[in-house]
Amino acid sequence: MDTQIGIIYGSTTGNTERAAELIAKQLGPQAVLHNIAEQGLEGVSSYSACIFGVPTWDFGELQEDWEDLWEEFVKLNLQGKPCALFGLGDQIGYAEWFLDAMGLLHEVLQASGAKIYGRWPVQGYKFEASKALSPDGRFFVGLALDDDCQFAETEERIKIWVEELKPLFEL
Ligand SMILES: Cc1cc2nc3c(=O)[nH]c(=O)nc-3n(C[C@H](O)[C@H](O)[C@H](O)COP(=O)(O)O)c2cc1C
Prior knowledge:
Elements: E1 5-9, H1 15-27, E2 31-35, H2 36-39, E3 49-57, E4 61-62, H3 64-73, E5 82-88, H4 100-111, E6 115-117, E7 120-121, E8 139-140, E9 143-145, H5 154-168
Parallel strand pairs: 1-2, 1-3, 3-5, 5-6, 5-9
Antiparallel strand pairs: 3-4, 7-8
This protein binds flavin mononucleotide (FMN).
GO molecular function, one term: electron transfer activity
Cofactor: FMN
Pfam family, one: Flavodoxin_1
């Protein structure tokens, strides 16, 4: 079978879904959209590479579909699999919890032995705290998107990020 890149996401009000669709468009025909509300996590381990999308809700919590599948998610075998993350949040409304859920997913990917790519610089954002930062605080652990405060930046950020990812995913 051809290389397939799963874009695995949950979305309550549609912003993460829209970002997932833009990422798929930028990646091209190898991208497969995988909404966990409809498909659960079945088949995730079979993708050649995985891109996980999560918005943060309720003061630093996982989006509800991720919450529902969390026990299954932590048990996935992603050893050696190329993976990347994108998160949606609101840096003004929820400055103390900006993109925390992306940080929670990142911890699980790290523990499962995935090869994690696609960190993203913190320049251009204003927030107070985030669980989605690299240890030195200079990067987010994945692509940081904020449709509430910086909607106009989303499409360009996705383009840049996906082009950086392509060679790392060996496309
Ligand atoms: C009730 C509520 C709580 C939220 N909590 C957070 C939060 O703790 N941290 C954050 O970065 N964004 C938070 N947000 C912003 C959402 O993550 C943001 O609107 C996101 O784009 C929603 O994605 P979705 O449409 O895919 O569900 C919150 C939004 C709402 C309405």
